[in-house]
Write a structure and sequence with these properties.
- The protein is an alpha/beta fold and about 400 residues long.
- The chain has 11 helices and 13 strands.
- Strand 10, helix 9 and strand 11 form a beta-alpha-beta unit.
- The protein is globular.
- It starts with 10 loop residues before the first strand and ends with a strand.
Length: about 400
């Protein structure tokens, strides 16, 4: 335990990310900040026969072994793979603070749903249940249980599943555990993998694009779903970057469509700024949720314009990664960390044809940099009108 006077702040001691751009933080950064960042290249055939782009991993994960507690699902495998990037710092935190003072909070929406789908399909076809299969594989705490087993952390451990804000809210939850003196370190973030239920579900909502996602373009046609993981080790000990503020709201406008006024999204950003003690002008980069759907981009453009005007550089990286759902907020936060570390901004890849009906938002292009970047904000929105904003700041 590390007592200190005043509010306990949460500092980012290490982070790791894996997604369609690469299997490690270095590989992802190299692709993200390259002169021509690679866009999603996977393909997925829907139940109705359509084929759509997806942000599939470009590296192999171990085959799922249902009898292995850590490897019972592809989601767990991806979490374990990503965790390897920060397993040393996590082990050091447990040694320093004690296992009971190290917590785990992970966001997810898929967990082991794909494995359940395949098991049920085989059973309905007359076959046996797979060896080792149990329906609890799809429980949302599965990745947390696997992370506890891998790390030995014994502090508060739970999952967050609020659809596409899960990863962002898990980071906020980790910072709250430190602020409340319940933990001295927290492994937090999000992980999700592609699965039939999710991809076909978005297809049924008519939210998927048959082409590359095109956020904020007049030609945008919808989402590309992706898979990925972003993991953070937050601690009470000072480090160059900290979780400076966060804001969370729920406007409950509709089960899937955003509130067209964007009031909840705007309020989340303003709450984060107030907690961080910052003005909108202090934010040097905004990572947009930017799904490429007609309604989400319209709502977000209005909210961002009202808070930040049309001067703050912004971007959505979903054409590069796909929408990683429960992991999206954590993957975005990892990209914000990379921006703070390098001054390079994640680029907004689109066709360049702005929608004249959207309030103006300045979109960052490939190679753009900000000298002395100190504060970033990452925005996430989800079903049910759930909104989250997380600010990462140079200490």
């Amino acid at each position: 335990m590390n007592p200190r006077s005043g509010p306990r702040r949460a500092y980012v001691h290490s982070h790791a990310v894996a997604c369609a751009l690469g299997g490690s933080r270095d590989a992802v950064a190299a692709a993200l900040f390259s002169a021509a960042p690679p866009t999603v290249s996977g393909r997925w055939r829907l139940a109705d026969g359509r084929e759509v782009p997806v942000g599939a991993l470009e590296f192999d994960l171990p085959a799922t072994v249902l009898t292995d507690p850590v490897g019972r699902s592809r989601t767990n495998h991806l979490m374990a793979h990503t965790l390897k990037g920060i397993e040393g710092p996590v082990a050091e935190a447990i040694s320093r603070y004690g296992a009971a003072r190290v917590g785990i909070v992970l966001g997810t929406s898929t967990s082991g749903v794909e494995e359940s789908t395949q098991a049920l399909r085989g059973r309905l076809a007359g076959g046996p249940w797979p060896v080792g299969y149990h329906f609890d594989i799809q429980e949302l705490n599965e990745p947390v249980a696997a992370a506890r087993q891998l790390t030995g952390a014994a502090g508060p451990a739970y999952s967050v599943s609020t659809a596409c804000t899960s990863g962002a809210k898990a980071i906020a939850a980790g910072a709250r555990l430190i602020a409340a003196d319940l933990c001295d370190a927290v492994l937090c973030g999000g992980v999700d993998t592609l699965c039939e239920l999710t991809v076909n579900g978005f297809g049924a909502l008519e939210a998927l694009s048959g082409e590359l996602s095109n956020p904020f373009s007049v030609n945008r046609k919808g989402i590309n779903i992706g898979e990925g993981a972003g993991l953070f080790l937050l601690t009470v000990d000072e480090a160059p970057v900290r979780v400076a503020g966060w804001g969370e709201t729920s406007d409950a406008h509709h089960i899937s469509a955003p509130d067209p006024t964007g009031l909840g999204a705007e309020t989340a950003a303003r709450k984060a700024l107030a907690m961080a003690g910052l003005s909108a002008a202090d934010i040097g980069y905004v990572h947009l949720h930017g799904t490429g759907t007609v309604l989400n981009d319209r709502m977000e453009a209005g909210a961002v314009n009202r808070v930040f005007g049309d001067d703050a550089p912004c971007s959505s990286t979903k054409p590069l990664t796909g929408h990683t759902l429960g992991a999206a907020g954590a993957v975005q936060a990892s990209f914000c960390m990379m921006a703070l570390e390098s001054g390079a901004l994640p680029p907004h890849i689109w066709d360049g044809q702005a929608d004249p009906e959207l309030p103006p938002v300045r979109l960052a292009g490939p190679g753009e940099r900000v000298q002395g970047l100190r504060h970033t904000l990452s925005a996430s929105y989800a079903f049910g009108g759930n909104n989250a904003a997380v600010i990462l700041s140079q200490s």
